[in-house]
Amino acid sequence: MTRTTPARRRCGFTLVELLIVITIIGTLAALLLPAIFAAMELADRTVCANNLRQLGLAVQLYLKDHDGYFFPLRYKSDPNHWYYGYGEPYGSKPEGERILDRTKAFLYPYTESYDSIELCPSFAKYGRYKAKYKGAWWTYGINKVLSPDNARPENLRNISEIRPRDAQRTVIFADAANVNDWQAPASRTNPLIEEWHYVLPPDYSAFDSPHVHFRHAGRANVLFADWHVEAVGPAAGSFDPRLPEARIGYFDPAEVLFAPGGTP
pLDDT tens across 182-235, in order? Predict the structure, then answer.
């Protein structure tokens, strides 16, 4: 009697089948990745907008306690006490090593979540970064027209100066950053991005540079004086030429206001 040897089962894929599977996976990834990245960006933009809303609530409480007057960037009487905290003086330590005491920030007593709302999650996506203080510290800029630098108490601005009809277009806070090309490790041949604390209109000063950071798919989140948050695009051709890929520029004066009274 002749025995028949059973045929062996074929295991695994043939080369052709494997190539087909790889092609299908690659096609699916090409289709899905843009949607995944868009969803991640939307999530970051939402967190950022919520940060600004929390800052808006803190500002409103501050204004209520100070008869409607805004805080300055810093008081003339104490140049190391900024609105975002008390910092060790410039030049006292190398950039990125100075200590910032956030508990001295003007808004610190007005929100329990201050330490978690000061940083936009999208800021870290832009490379070529230079630290200013030890650790991350601030990624939103106050409207410098409302919060002047080196201010005396009699020079402070009041929320009542903003006309009701202009409130929905007047900037309080916005996404901010700065291009630094003068403090090591930055240089003119190696400009770097750093966190920043104010934003301003294009005609504010010939000696200043743009600070609005359009980091959310080419738009910047803005807290307006009616306390709503909205993403706004840049003025055409306004990106800082020293590092245009960082998308740091100006708002279009036709879209937003900085000065009370309706003047862009």
Answer: 999 999 999 999 999 999 999 888 789 999 999 999 999 999 999 999 999 999
Q: Which two tokens stand for residue 18?
A: 């494997």
Least confident of 72-81, 218-227, 254-263: 254-263
Per the listing, tokens 């600004």 go with 52
Alpha-carbon torsion angle 241, 246, 248, 252, nearest 10: 90
- Asked, as a colleague might, if the bond just before 164 is cis with ω within 30 of 0, I would say no
Transcribe the chain into DSSP letters. -PPPPPPPPP-S--HHHHHHHHHHHHHHHHHHHHHHHHHHHHHHHHHHHHHHHHHHHHHHHHHHHTTTBPPPSBBTT-TTEETTEEEPPTTSS-TTT--EEGGGSTTGGG-TTHHHHS--TTGGGS-SB--SSSS----EEEETTTS-TTB-GGG--BGGGS-GGGGGGBEEEEEB-EEE-SSTT-BTTB-EEE---EE--TTS-TT----EE-TBTTBEEEEETTS-EEEEPBPTT-S-TTSGGG-EE-B-TTT-B-STTS--
163 vs 179: CA distance, rounded Å: 33
Residues in Cβ contact with 258 at an 8 Å cutoff, skipping those fewer than 6 apart = 143, 144, 145, 146, 170, 171, 200, 201, 204, 264
Which residues touch 96 (CB under 8 Å, ≥6 apart)? Answer: 130, 131, 132, 133, 134
